[in-house]
User: What shape does this take?
Amino acid sequence: MIIPSSTYRIQFNRNFNFNHLYNILDYLEDLGITTIYASPVLQAAKGSEHGYDGIDVTRINEELGTPDDMKRLAQGLKKKGIGWIQDIVPNHLAFDTNNVWLKDVLERGTNSSYATYFDIDWEHPFYTGKLMVPFLEAPVADCLKQNILNVRFREDGFFLAYRDLYYPVSLETYPLLISGCLNDEFNNVNSLLNALISNKGVSYEQCCGMKTELMAQLNDETVAFNINEKIKDINTDNELLLSIVNAQHYALCYHMDSNTSINYRRFFNVNGLICLRMEDEAVFNAYHAYIHQLYEMGHIQGLRIDHVDGLRNPVEYVDRLRALFGEDCYIIVEKILDDKEELPEMRIQGTSGYEFLSYINQVITDNKGSEKLLKIYNSYVPEFNDYDKMVFEKKLSFLEPYLNGEWDNLLRLLLSLSLIEDEEIKMPALKKALGVFMAAFPVYRAYVEKMPLDPNDAELVKAGFEKALRLFPDLNYELTVLQSLFEPHEDQTKTNNRLTFIQRLFQFTGPLAAKGVEDTAFYLYNPLISHNEVGDQPRVLGIDVKEFHNKMIVRQEKNPYSFNCTSTHDTKRGEDARVRINIISEMADEWKQLVAHWQNINEPYRQSVAGERAPIVNDIYYLYQAIIGGFPEDLKVTRDFVERTKTFFIKVLRESKLRSEYIDPNYSYEAASTAFIEHLLNSKDSFLPSLMPFVKKIIQFANTYTMVQVIIKCTAPGIPDIYRGCELWDLSYVDPDNRRYVNYDLRKRLVHDMKAKDKVSREALLDYAEKNQEIGTQKMFVTREVLRYRKQYPKLFSEGAYLPLYAEGSERKVIAFMRRHEDQWLLVILPLGIVSDTGKELSLALPGEAPSKWINLFTREEVTGQTIDIHKLFNKFPLAVLVQP
Assistant: This one.
């Protein structure tokens, strides 16, 4: 197995394809990258910006290039010694009429070869024998009245056309549609149709062949003319159209209906992503066949599993994946861990690194300053003073309006498995108890494989029920009944049924946690929004250096091959925007004065909406921080920045679900908020001139702290992952803002210039990096230096011990540690608490067995002795990585 020394996230789409990546391979090699980590490459929905909405797992996405383009890229990577980790999405595909498997399900229903591939409840009481299709802008009858839903005839068959969507008409409907359109010479059409309709077990391939033969007959010029004339008549008869719509193997319906009832499992509450039954071995084999072929061809060397928590049995899935790909395949999973949660035992190399994001985010934050910030925030927003309570309430409140269908389905499963022996139990109370437990469950999910539960899962379940009982004592009986299901029954059949229910239940606690926490509470609880981040915990605003060191020791022991990420396609803001916001924790007193001043001068620009001032104070408090985080490095407020901020903030408002939401947008409130942003970013008004001096200070300190973050990421236990373009500043907002164009020509030029300056002297290079820090050149400089060193000495980082060091003078003035592998040593010394640095004496004593001669990787200065004067060390450059000569 090849363990990456570093990875570089590639976000493939039509604007950045295989050939674009091929053209920057020299640049990535020079940067020190040893592995690319690529977004999904299998065929996705047309125009997909990310690839997580797959429609055909048997071929390469044509918008990214051809198989030959991919082969050329893979060969180019090998020549550079760069590996390829591929992101795969086994949980779901796009609910798209171009989805190869799904199209067959829509056309043939339960007769389809793929009817059991998707997680569809074909026995749902509202949609028996049909697949719900919730994409209409209004109920069917209204769509017919508006003439936006009708029948169409195309070369490949009949369709129900809605806007630009084409849903295949069932073969059983064809006789009605072609009746009277054929003459005697087309008698074999009926026999073909009868064969297609009556042979229920015909395979997808056979069906395609027979249908091609049928359509060749129907596309005869005369026949096609007759059919189109008949279709015109049908489309004028709404009663007939309605009967045709109702005769399909699917149920077209209003998109909002999915909030109250649904008969397929979705990715979270996204109608457009339909989940697969990956626990079915046939589905597993069909899904992975082509990606395994790419692995066998040597194009890819590793896998990242997207949303592993959505699978019924993640451990079993990983075991199958390992059996298929072998022990030499590097495999990591996307897994969000609670601050006290450990990675479940699986045959993987680690995670995609959100837990590391939390660690580095926390140690950069001043925990004492954060205590002040919490008091300031609560003085403005006293109603949000209990984060854990908010999380529970938001998870529970998300169920009814958004996931009520899934909630009902779980209750029906519970009853259909005959798990509730009390026939007198009240169903509303039982349903409520089920929802309360899901909301109270302390982590995303448990990975239950068998009964009895293992001790860790049993503790999590116990904690969930204890919290549920504490908050809803009136549900004591129902919760006790549910809790008993997590124990084995003396009847093995009932035990198996309990396991079936439990595994299904935990496929929904994850989505509920994600929507209640990441996509709701993270936009509501705003003391320091840099911690409202995937993998992080807003209830914890800063940890001390010793706690960080302890986490790194454990990481080296248990997860040394996990990614160290600081930005991803899913993070709520760019890594450098987070750093800026964290610095507010070191400037709490000034922040308090500024916020009071800003609230006063901005009050006239709030509007009255539905009897209250808009935006509300909580939203304004969030907005102040977001603007500081994303403010352009050159301090120039462009129209683009204003529009990006407005677009981003509308998403914030809808995600928070407090004054607006996606299912019922409050356009008046949103308009008041965007008008408020226009005021904030208008240099002629009073806020921006007041903000600018503070932003300048923040940026000054952030330039150092962002390098601290990069260096820790690249030298601490784990594998540093660089998100596309983040070798320079990443001040982006949440997606899709973080998928904007990356200027690689600029990055190539900067590297070229730095190399040229370095040939002159190291001082010339440092001077160049400092003068161009406005665009992030210092960040690129340290990234390149450390990654190239890692590449030269990989075992020092993958296998080397992590040795914490503590400076004499102040606990929060420096973070230092050593890495050691056999006779190879590395020493990292980085500043903390730089806002309040008084310059008083600060030294670092090295262990007796450590080397006494070092070279500063950045300045090339020689450093000697067993005690290091830190201020002297930072004289030429504000941080240091020391290596052996």
Notes: The longest strand covers residues 814-821. Residues 44 and 54 are 4 Å apart (CA to CA). Residues 385-523 form one domain. The chain is about 45% helix and 15% strand.
